[in-house]
Each structure stands twice: as C-alpha cells, then as structure tokens.
Fold:
Amino acid sequence: MKIKRKKILIVIGGGISAYKSLDLLRFLKKDGYEIKIVLTKSGKQFVTPLSLVSLSGGKIYENLFDKNSEAEIDHIALSRWADLILVVPATANIISKLSHGKAEDLASTILLASNKDIILVPAMNVRMWSHKATQENCKKLITYGYKFLGPTEGQMACGEFGKGKMLGPKKIYMEIKNYFYKRNIVKNKKFKALVTTGPTREYLDPVRFISNESSGKQGYEIALALKRMGVKTTLIAGPSNLQIEKGLKVIKVKTSDEMFSAVKKSLPVDVAVFTAAVSDFKPSTFQKNKIKKDKSKERIELDGTIDILNYIGKTNQNRPKLVIGFSAETEKLLHNSKIKLKNKNADWIIANDISKNDIGFNKDYNAVTIIRSDGKVSQIKKNKKSFIASIISGEIIKKLLINDKSLN
Structure:
C-alpha cells in the first residue's frame, strides 16, 4: 500500500551510521513521503548538508536561532508540521539528553516540544548500548512515549561484535510504512470513542461539595492515545487542572448528572472508557444559600447518583461495542473488580489499587490489571500513566479491529 504525502521530520545524529540516512531518504522520497531534515552539529561530521539537500529537495535545518526563519520559531513549527519524527541514528548522547529533558540545540528542542510520535533508531558501540545508564535512559524514554526501532546485533564499525548496530535503511523504511499503514486502517474505519475522566462535584450549597482525589490524568492520557491512533475521541471531563492538548474534543462537566447527560449525548460510539471517579452520593437537597455555621451540625441526607457504567453496560440502545470501566479499590482488588465486571455488564474492567501512595489518584504513575469478560486477565506494571494509556489504547484498537472483522 503506497502512502502519499505523509510528513516525516528526520533528525540526523552524530555517528558513523548517519550515512545510512541517505539510503533511507531515497526509499522514503521514492514512496511519496514529504521530508524535512534537522542535521545535528555532530551529524554534520558524517553527512554533508549538500548531499541531504540533493536527496530531500528542501532546506536543511541546523541552527536553533536561524536569522532567515526566526519568525517561524523553527523548533515549534517543525514539530507541528510533522506527522512523525524519526531520530536516526539515535546516539547514546541524544538518548541521554532526551531522558533528562535537555533542550540545548535545535534537535533536542524540537523533540522536547513535539506533540507527535517520535521513533528513535539507536546506533552505538555494544558497551555503550549495554551500559546501565543507557538502559535506564531508554526505559525512562519508553515511559514518556518514545518508540524504539532496534538496535540489532552485528559487526560494529569499531570492529567489535554485539548489540548496538543500527537497523538497515530498508528495514527502517518498512517499519515506517507499517506504522502509517496501521494508522490509516484505524482512521479509515472511522472508529469513535468517548472517555470520561476526573472527579464529579455534588454540591451542598453554592460553595461546598462532595468530591474525591481524582486528577483525571489517566483518562486524559487514554483519550489522547486513542486520538493519536486515529480514533475520533471525545473526552468528558470533570473538574481538574489538566492542560488539554489542542485538537482533542473535550466536554467539561461538574456533577454526575451533567456527566451522565454528556455521555448519552455523545452516543453512539464504538468504545466507551469510564475512568471518571463519579461520586457515589449526592445531597438530597441543594441549599441555594451558603449553609451557615450555626446550621453545620444539621444532618445531611444523601441520595445515590446515577451509575453511568451500569446504565451504558446494560442499555439496549446505542450500547458501544466495547464498554470499559475502571475499578478503584483499596482491598480485594481482583475479587471486587470481577464482581463489578459482572454486575455492570461491562466488557472489561481495569482495576487499580488506590491504597498505595505512589500510584493511582493524583499521581503520575499507575499500575493496572485488565480483566476481560472472557476470563482473560493481564497486568500492566507500575509505569507512567501515559505509558499505561498507550498499552490500554493499543489493546482497545486490537479488539475493535477483531470485532469489525467478525462482522464482515
């Protein structure tokens, strides 16, 4: 399948393998990709700007502050222009810079400012690759959402043999082609998703409410991951301090009733992911005026809120093909979550232990267990919520594609 007009930004690092970028450019240009190139200072020692201009047919970007294009703010404009960013070769130095969040030249600044997928193609001496520092840096970058191609085993330019050799240009080209092919499949299916996230507020009076510690981070990351995979995604978000990425459709709500209404209006969708920590109770009456201290000892009567997951799981009208709930538990994680899966008629329950201080509510890290209605159980160990989201969204896409094929 020929992919046309996809935009790839290639960052060329410093290393003997940089010369392979020339063959990669030929493959990509021949197949209709639009290419822009950032040449690092050390990369310039191995390939010349002239050879890159000849193959790419465009300007080569080298300097962070270029007087000829300063108004464009290159590090922002280039990162937004691309559909995909490829770093080839990704040296130990580049990997170290990225893992520590450094932005000291055009290449590292673009990568730090990017909101697109970034693929790193490592190439270095076998000892450099196996060094604990490099391996720790790579693990950290994976949690940040970076993707890796290689390295492989082979004969090094230095004469040593082992893992650290860069993948060949043809292999890299095929992996890129496959990346866009998979994204196109999902995009062409026109899948739709809704994700709920954050807490709800159930008001006692104009200034007081019942709520919880949910930050909304996990649901936001799942919505973002689905969107980036080509799924038309709506995020229904309770009150939070999330900085929403431009382009993601967001419906902001406060109460459980507002969230329920927004969910119903967002149907039909192919998948609904209910990560929101919806309050289980709300005051029976709302006081229009602030409750004064002299009345603070009065009893507050509570009613149950609408169980959104239960309603959607059991509805016969516009039920999504895949209904996924979250189960935040402090004890008997699997036992309680399996009961919830059955009682709510969900397809999956994603369970997480909120009794731990380093994961879950209001944390950047999480650890979850995916429990499916067919009995399959899988775990995702403690990691960044963005990484957890990438795994969950990948599993969602697989399931949607399987379901779609079964209907044909």
